Fold this sequence. Notes:
The structure is a homodimer.
Chain A (H helix, E strand, L loop, with lengths): L1 H6 L1 E3 L9 H13 L8 H21 L6 E4 L2 H14 L7 E5 L4 H12 L3 E5 L9 H7 L4 E5 L13 H10 L3 E5 L18 E5 L10 E5 L25 H39 L4 E3 L9 E5 L5 H10 L2 E3 L14 H5 L4 H4 L2 E5 L6 H20 L5 H6 L2
Parallel strand pairs in A: 1-11, 3-4, 3-5, 5-6, 6-7
Antiparallel strand pairs in A: 2-8, 7-8, 9-10, 10-12
Amino acid sequence: MDDRRLHRIYLDQINGTPLLPQASEAMKEAWGKGGNPSSPHAEGRAANGLKERARVGVASLVRARGEEITFTSSGTEANAWALTGLTKAGTRKGNHLVVSAVEHPSILQTARRMEKEGWKVTAVPVDRAGRVDPAAVEAALTPETALVSIQWANSEVGTLQPVGELARRVKARGILFHTDAVAAAGQLPIDLKAVPADALSLAANTFGGPPGAGALFVRKGVRILPLFVGGAQEDGRRAGTENLAGIVGMGEAARVMARELPGRIPGWIGLRDRLSRGIESRLPEARLNGHPTERLPGHLSVSLPGADAEALVLALDREGISVGIGSACTARAMKASHVLRAMGADDAHALGTITLTLGVETTEEEIDRVLEILPRVAAGQIKGGLTPAGSSRDSR
Amino acid sequence: MDDRRLHRIYLDQINGTPLLPQASEAMKEAWGKGGNPSSPHAEGRAANGLKERARVGVASLVRARGEEITFTSSGTEANAWALTGLTKAGTRKGNHLVVSAVEHPSILQTARRMEKEGWKVTAVPVDRAGRVDPAAVEAALTPETALVSIQWANSEVGTLQPVGELARRVKARGILFHTDAVAAAGQLPIDLKAVPADALSLAANTFGGPPGAGALFVRKGVRILPLFVGGAQEDGRRAGTENLAGIVGMGEAARVMARELPGRIPGWIGLRDRLSRGIESRLPEARLNGHPTERLPGHLSVSLPGADAEALVLALDREGISVGIGSACTARAMKASHVLRAMGADDAHALGTITLTLGVETTEEEIDRVLEILPRVAAGQIKGGLTPAGSSRDSR
């Protein structure tokens, strides 16, 4: 950590924020307390107390109640659970699911599985900025539609969806609405009092909590079937011994973020604009993806058509700069991002795309250093012939 | 932790072992390294290196290869995944599943769900010691049997199953064999070179690792469908950002246990025998459950017919002693254990049952203190009328 703090510039927050010190401290204390939250003895009660405090912390980040939060092992689990659990609970009959074309793969691939089990799935297209049209979503609804799942923000290009309007339109038709807020949670205030979503997915490691800790908000009164059975944990909603340290870290990070996020946003926007203006002036061939204003404050997606994104990431890495490569979840299988393709990008554009995401610790000096190094590295990549991804990997 | 170490006696290891110091240290270091194991930059590679080291550690505990270990969020997830993933992979046609009547609820309730989806499930009975008869398991096999899942050891009564023989008989018929080794892993050597199981479930918090970290061993060449899709993590077998600290802690605990376990077993057996002899002489009404010799070395299940197990646990808790109450997973919904019922116990017997499980730190002095306190507490429970569970809870 010290090494990175001193020498490296970490602009891959969307694929994992550094752990906030408050979260780290709370986690260390949780270990000391030990115990299984389901046990009635002192150690169990202590563990349970920590867990319930964390639940309230996570709820505070999205303006929900503690009882509406269930801990999961990741945003991916929360997404898989939302899609299968909400539909299997049978609140509304019908076998039609509506998603957007730019959802995270954990939504799209779970939807594809449901298709094999007899579900009909509509993937609503997006415009060149990556946004769905609420009227198009509404037009996709049928009497058979049981659930609509559309993300709050896109992790690859940073575009925000009009989730408030989407949720209101979908709810007005008596249909369940889920939103994947994993990419949004550390960057934007999320207010579930204003957005009437039935369910919302979170991952701790997008807002300063540990990786491998997630949560699903399920609005009070909404039925959901568990994914894991055979235990009374999480009020019977998710069987399995809890990752207590992860839960405690998530709760503490959420508490800190709920308090500090509003104050951080102007700074992120300023740094991001400095970065985007700098890139535009120094790299005229670069293209910035996503919506110009309706976007995550600390997020930039940059395409250098003709470059190889992985080679670019590795070249920047050698200069001490960490950036993202589309979605880290699928990064090791290089193919054109489904998000960029849905936005109309061709392969040359999509395969040369990197993401730069700013965090709590990002400084103006770091941005300026990136602006100094990126054009040189990019020029090497584009003009000097591309370093084959394979050989770069071997040299690790 | 110090508090407990100094003043409390923790005999509820089966529901969560204290974190080994080596695991704790490794976890703290993992945080410092940060990073998403799927990212190609320096932070990502460091995280990935830690994860792969942990995988080899876990493999060493069960004599498997690293590539045969996939990390999960709990033993419950490993069990749910084994049942659904092995059967859906369609290695063998047929819709018949064989389990034992004393499996963990995560197996039995997942099986019940599969029944609703059209599967036939046979639950093979056990004898009064809680053991299945391999001939009875074999007799249950049909040409439609796709999978047999029988535990290595029972967490509630400590009885071991003849898994080696079971696996050989089932494999000889060309049927897949899974075993839930969650209760066994911290207490007994597990040798997957000697036991030809196709899959085996583990949970870190039964062998000194953190709660909320599990793994599924899947033998090389055996097909399994993922539970979570939409990411390339774990070689595509389990999508979702990894709980890196949990994984690292699990790997380190496994490494320590693989080394130290054989040397600890004689001590556990000695302490357990001291405890069981002491209980038999001081509490003639007590009944010890499970097999007398084919059992976990540090595990004792004691029934005090007529007592209320939860009241007993809380009364012992007030004396500074933590013991288990059937399965912690279902402890908050008090009803007679399905395990004890399958072994022929009546309700009065089953509802008065506690488990005492010894750990790395258990001492002779602690055992003697339990033997001094337990008879007094038990006498108060049985003679003085039972404290209603509800009022005990309220007084927490």
